[in-house]
Amino acid sequence: GEDVEQSLFLSVREGDSSVINCTYTDSSSTYLYWYKQEPGAGLQLLTYIFSNMDMKQDQRLTVLLNKKDKHLSLRIADTQTGDSAIYFCAERAGNMLTFGGGTRLMVKP
Amino acid sequence: GAVVSQHPSWVICKSGTSVKIECRSLDFQATTMFWYRQFPKQSLMLMATSNEGSKATYEQGVEKDKFLINHASLTLSTLTVTSAHPEDSSFYICSAPLKEHYPTGELFFGEGSRLTVL
Question: Which one of A94, A95, A100 has the shortest CB-CB distance to B43?
Answer without folding.
Answer: A100
